[in-house]
């Protein structure tokens, strides 16, 4: 069996009930308004909500899709039994509490952008959220920090490890600048 087929067979498909198990979830974090304070606040709020966190290095990248200040981006891992819908509601609450203003433009400056990237090995739509998020395979500022903290973990649909995916993307990626921002 190919590596990709094996990964597909082992994922959790939408509609399968595997019971209330703890799942590793990855959350992307980005900010280009009051960046350091916003990201530190998000880390504090996520730690209060989910306990121990796995925190990637922080990268600075140019704004994508609009002219604006550079973003700080990272990925945070949590282990939880909480549902996808409840996680997404909590992420929106944290964004709102940290000053996120929602407008008609998807690509706009923001104090905080939190997106659930993965929910264990789940693939498909759950609680209105498509998992894994396609941003993992599209944007270096999502994949690079994910590959830093989970290089051997496999993408739920693609089947390749995040480390392998990053090595394949890195040659085509735009500039990523590692930033020293202590978050512990």
CATH class of the domain at 21-133: Alpha Beta
- Structural classification: alpha+beta
Stretches where pLDDT is under 50 for at least 5 consecutive residues are 1-17
Q: Output the CATH homologous superfamily of the domain at 21-133.
A: 7,8-Dihydro-6-hydroxymethylpterin-pyrophosphokinase HPPK
What would you note in describing this structure?
- The protein is α+β, with helices and mostly antiparallel strands and 184 residues long.
- α2 packs antiparallel against α3 (84-97) and α5 crosses α6 (162-170).
- The strands form two sheets. Strands 2, 3, 4, 5, 6 and 9 form a six-stranded antiparallel beta sheet that branches. A three-stranded mixed beta sheet has the order 1-7-8, covered by helices on one side.
- The protein is 33% helix and 24% strand.
- β7 (122-126) and β8 form a beta hairpin.
Write the layout of secondary structure elements.
Layout: H1 3-10, E1 12-13, E2 23-31, H2 35-50, E3 54-55, E4 58-61, E5 71-80, H3 84-97, E6 113-119, E7 122-126, E8 129-131, H4 135-138, H5 140-149, H6 162-170, E9 177-179
Parallel strand pairs: 1-7
Antiparallel strand pairs: 2-5, 2-6, 3-5, 4-5, 4-9, 7-8
């Amino acid at each position: 069996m190919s590596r990709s087929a094996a990964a597909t067979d082992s994922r959790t498909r939408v509609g399968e009930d595997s019971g209330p198990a703890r799942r590793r979830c990855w959350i992307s974090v980005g900010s280009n308004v009051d960046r350091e304070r916003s990201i530190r606040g998000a880390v504090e709020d996520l730690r209060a909500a989910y306990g121990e966190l796995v925190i990637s290095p922080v990268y600075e990248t140019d704004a994508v899709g609009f002219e604006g200040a550079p973003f700080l981006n990272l990925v945070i891992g949590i282990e939880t039994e909480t549902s996808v819908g409840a996680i997404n509601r909590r992420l929106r609450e944290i964004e709102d509490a940290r000053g996120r203003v929602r407008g008609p433009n998807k690509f706009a400056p923001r104090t905080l952008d939190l997106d659930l990237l993965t929910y264990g090995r789940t693939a498909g739509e759950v609680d209105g959220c498509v998992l894994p998020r396609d941003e993992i395979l599209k944007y270096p500022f999502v994949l690079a920090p994910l590959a830093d903290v989970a290089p051997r973990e496999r993408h739920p649909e693609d089947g390749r490890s995040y480390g392998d995916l990053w090595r394949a993307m890195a040659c085509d990626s735009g500039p990523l600048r590692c930033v020293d921002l202590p978050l512990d």
